[in-house]
Every structure is written in C-alpha cells, then in structure tokens.
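Review form for a predicted model. The reviewer records the input and the model, then writes brief findings.
Reviewer: anonymous (R2)
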Amino acid sequence: MLKDFIEDKIRISLSDKSKSKFFELDISKLVLSIPNNPDHGDFSTNFALINAKALKLNPFELAREISTLLDNEDSDLFERVTVEKPGFINFKISKKIYHDFLAEVLIKGENFGSFPLNGKKILIEFVSANPTGLLHLGHLRNAAVGDSIARILKFSGYSVTTEYYINDYGNQIRLLGESLKSRVMQKLKIESKIPEEGYKGEYLLDVAELLLSEVKSDDLLSKDYEFFSNYAIKYLINEIDKDLKDLDINFDSWYSERDRIHNTDLLSKTRNLIKSVQGLYEKDDAQWIKTSEYGDNDDWVVKKRDDASTYFMNDIAYHHDKFQRGFDNIVNIWGADHHSHISRLKASMNLLSNDSHKLNFVLIQFVRLIKDGRDVSMSKRSGTYTTIRDMLSEFNKDLVRFMMVSRSSDSHFDFDLDKCREGSDDNPIFYIQYASARINSILNKDEVVKFTESQVDLSLLIEDKEINIIKKILNFPDIILDASNSMSPHKLAFYLQELSALFHSYYRETKILVDERELSGARLFLLKSLKTVFTNGLTLLGVSSPERM
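Model under review:
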C-alpha cells in the first residue's frame, strides 16, 4: 500500500539521519493519516508531538527539524513537507510516486487491493433465520452484510467458512407442524383452526398443496405434528436456500440444531464440562450457570424444571462446538435485538476456557419498508411481511444488495420503494454501475488507441482531477483493510460512491481521446484502472459491474 511505502521510506530516512542529531527519535511511533483538509497535503503525522513529549522538546521545533531532514533529501518522494502548530508534519507526495503506483494496478488486476493468505481461519454465522417461513426484509440486510463481510475477509487473506444455523428444534417447530396440518385439513375441506400462536401466512397453503400431491390424504390425516414439521422444514430450507442463491449467497455449512446438538451427546458433554469447573448450581428447581463470575451481570437458567434445556444452553453448546472446530476468529452477525445476549454468551465461553476475545459480533439494526411515504408493517406469524422474493420480483439483486450495505449496520435503515424505483443519479448503485459501464463503452470504441500497458507514459497525467482519481484508486487497499478489520462493508460502499463521483466529474470536463496519442493512452490507462477498482469493489459487495447499461 502507498501509505506503508511512504511510512517505510520516512522511517529509513529518519533512522539514518537522526543518529547524527541531538535527538533520538522513536520511529516505531510514526503513523501517517490522511488529513481532512486537502490543503494540509496527502498525509499527515503527529510523530513530532509524540516524540517531543518523551524527549522534553518543543514539538513545533522538533517538527521543523524533522521536516527539514526529509524535505532536503527526499525530493523524489515529496513535493513539499510542511509543519503546522502545535507540531503536525504534512507531506505532499510527488506525482512520480503516484504514477509509479498506478502502474501496478493493471498488473495486479482482480487481485488489486487484496492481501496474501495469512493462514487465519474465520467462521461467520449469519442469517440463521428460523425455518418457519420465507426470508423477509430484515433477513435481507443480514444476508447482504454477512456475505459482503465474508467476501471482504477472503479478499483480505483469511480462510473463511460461512455457516447458517438451522433452528429446527423446539416449540416454534411444533407450532409450524400443527399449522401445516391445519392447512392440509383446510385443503381437504375439514374444519381446522391454526393454533393461536401458529403460523398463519398463506405460504403454508402452497406447502400443503405440494404435500397433498405427494402423499395420499388418508395417510396424512393419521400423521402427527412431527411429520408435518419435518416436511415443512425441508421445504422451507430449500426455499430459503433458493432465495439466498438468487442473492448470489452460498453457505459452506448448514448446521442443524436438531441433528448436531439434540441428536448427539454435545449437550451432555458441554453440561458436564461446565459442571467440571463448578460452573453450575441448583436454585428454584432449575439449573443455573455462573456467568456472573465470568463477566456478565447475572446468572442464567440452562435447565428448566421439566429437565428441558433452555435456548441459552443450546447456544452455549453450539458456540463451544464452534471453538472446538479450531477457528481463530468466530463472527456472529445478529439482529440488534439480540444485543443483551452477547455478554452472557462471552461469559459462558470464558467459563469453558475458550478465548472470548475470538468471539465477535456485528449487530444489524432494523429495516423499515417505506411505501407511499408510510411504514409497511411486517409479521411472520400473521403472514403480513415482505419477503426477499417479493423484493427480487420488483428490484434486481444488485440494487437490493447494495442498498442493504450502503449504511452502517448499526444504524436503522429505511428502504424506500419509490426512491429505489428511480434509475437516476440519486440512486447510488445506478451511479456507480453507470460509471463502470461508461468506462467500458469508451474502452471498446473502434477509434480507441491501442496501447501497451507497460509502455504508457503516465507522467502525462498531471491535471488535478487526474491526480485526485489516482489518489482515490490507490486508497482502495486501505479501504479494504479498514472494512475488513472493522467488518464494515458500508465503508467500501461509501468509497465506491466517492470514486464514481470523481470519475463522472472528470468525464464531463475532460476529453479522453485527444490528438496526442500518448496522452490518450495515459488517460485510457487511468480509466482501465478505474474499471478494475469498480469491478473488484462491487464484486466484494455481491454486485455486478455491467458492461453496458
């Protein structure tokens, strides 16, 4: 990355020169940042402020001394080095450095911005919606954010496994089976009421019709709720998988609670392990776990009076199993309403001698669907909710995926149907994809000068708009690193919007194909580099980079 290169160059210069001066600098503390005010240069550092305090020197005078050392002998690296009170050092990088780094973009191609494999394994669990209905708008945001994080982490050198936890055990599954049985009986003209807390959505009518086409009605009437539950789960998981595939999301692992937890000895083994470290006690005819001794505010019930395990106990067993599978980092992408569950789960992992620092969470705030300026209410059990399938029937996959990662996941998001129907510059994904398609149309013109990438003279790119675009292109690896470390795909979405704005402004004011073939070649190289970044960035968000629009 350019920033790393500049930092290394400065460290080398200072380590050589500072030894002959009256001060001894701690060069390990040199960190560059991009200043908010472009008048302050391309990079800035508070390095002098940090060293001055330790050396008991005036920070402004120390900054001036350092800037003089660098400015005098690194003319190929810097156009200028300036100082701002109380002791900031600002660097204006030479155009030659930008041109040299731009030359590498097309060499790296689809790998530009990526990082080498680091050997670390990450498990990301996301969506994990109960298999009691089709995926809705809230799941859509979770899916888009989760898959984008997985893609960005893979691009950043991690070995990533994605997992969907199937909650196919418990009372909601019994209610699902009873609800489906009622729908089957209704299809057979037999009076039957769906349970009060059952699932009333019309999607179960489709499941009932399919079931009746496969099994004789007389045989069905004698079946218990488990038969109907199993059939509904199989059907709905298949439909959920279809919807996710339509979003270009493919899970590596589907983890069944029933098969992997309740039909194995995982629960008993986990409980015995907790017991072996004196982590359990009895109170009020229930069994409690001592999470308050390991970082949580309270203890929690793990086994009820009827001997049934609580949902929390199932979750402890599941997460202990995650740790046992040898991942270096475990990421849960949850709805924000599960926030209170985090501290008790981390405390449980500490109790089991798992490193809870390896367990990380991304919380997804709620999505509101806005139509005609008003909220559209959603409820799975009543069947009044907007499914992913509904969304994809009206909007293409690219739009819905990009919109869902266009804001920070910890902020509420309003999906305005009317605004999303607008194919204008106000629609961010249209604006970005149009930039990519427009570049492609230029590159494919018959009159485009054919250039050899290694022979292009990039020093001809000297206009301010060109240098600003180059800076933005070279910032792409830093954006990827930041989005990866913070697991924040919206940062990449913001970046792509800013990059597309720079391109559209440049395109409006600058003629790409001019009489000077060398200048045309340099500008085409710049556009091809832009196209590379748009393609790489959009791919990481699960969005296509169209050839034409």
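Findings: The longest helix spans residues 517-540.
Further findings: DSSP finds 22 helices and 14 strands in the chain.
Recommendation: see findings above.
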